[in-house]
């Protein structure tokens, strides 16, 4: 009898320890998800802000499209409108994609593999956005000049001064943002790697 009681007590204690371990593991996973989401949210806010700015610029261009003459200004307006739609869509989709996978349903290896795949997609989207941003900068300046002042900036040398000052600024700004995003991605990856411990 004593052995049976001892065996039952052992099973009961073992069950309690297993339950506590499961509870601790679920809390660790929950905290990992919260920390990971916080890191990704730091990238989501600037992207959403940029999307709002793009929507305002798109509305401004589309509402004044009838003023864009001659044909090359109309083409710049169309290309600018396409860029203002395309850039925020692909960028916000990439941010939501990198945030979308669930840490709790996958094991460590699957989670890290999914993260790395989404990270590479996000980095490629950011590189594409830099190129599209440069194209947008070239096409939107003459459009804004025409819509705001009624002048064709291609017929003045002023536009070349703006390009010569704007492109270096755009280049360094893009690289600064890219560096910040890479830092946030590295911190998010560190959070996932802690799951292995």
Itemize the secondary structure elements and their pairings:
Elements: H1 2-63, H2 71-100, H3 108-149, H4 158-193
Helix pairs in contact: 1-2, 1-4, 2-3, 3-4
Essential attributes:
197 residues; mainly alpha; 4 helices; 0% strand; elongated
Q: How is this structure best described in words?
A:
- It is a single chain.
- The chain has helices at 2-63, 71-100, 108-149, 158-193.
- It has 197 residues and is mainly α.
- The protein has one domain (2-196).
Compact overview of the structure:
The protein has 197 residues and is an all-alpha fold.
How would you classify the helix and strand content by structural class? mainly alpha
Order of helices and strands: HHHH
Alpha-carbon Rg, integer: 26 Å
How many strands appear in the DSSP assignment?
Answer: 0
Give me the number of helical elements.
4
Distance between the termini: 42 Å
State the assembly state of the protein chains. single chain
Note poorly predicted spans: none
What's the mean pLDDT score? 78
Shape verdict: elongated
How many domain regions?
1
Instruction: Tell me the strand percentage band.
Output: under 5%
| Proportion of helical residues | over 70%
Give the biggest sheet.
none
């Amino acid at each position: 009898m004593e052995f049976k009681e001892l065996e039952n007590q052992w099973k009961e204690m073992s069950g309690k320890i297993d339950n506590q371990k499961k509870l601790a593991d679920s809390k660790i996973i929950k905290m990992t998800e919260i920390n990971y989401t916080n890191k990704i949210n730091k990238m989501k806010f600037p992207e959403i802000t940029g999307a709002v700015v793009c929507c305002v610029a798109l509305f401004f261009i589309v509402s004044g499209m009838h003023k864009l003459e001659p044909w090359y200004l109309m083409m710049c307006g169309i290309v600018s409108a396409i860029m203002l739609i395309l850039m925020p869509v692909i960028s916000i989709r990439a941010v939501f994609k990198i945030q979308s996978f669930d840490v709790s349903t996958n094991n460590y290896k699957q989670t890290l593999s999914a993260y790395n795949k989404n990270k590479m997609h996000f980095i490629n989207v950011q590189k594409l956005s830099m190129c599209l941003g440069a194209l947008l900068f070239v096409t939107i300046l003459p459009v804004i000049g025409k819509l705001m002042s009624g002048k064709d900036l291609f017929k003045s040398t002023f536009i070349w001064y703006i390009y010569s000052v704007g492109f270096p600024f755009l280049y360094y700004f893009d690289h600064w943002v890219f560096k910040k995003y890479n830092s946030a991605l590295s911190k998010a990856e560190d959070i996932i790697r802690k799951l292995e411990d």
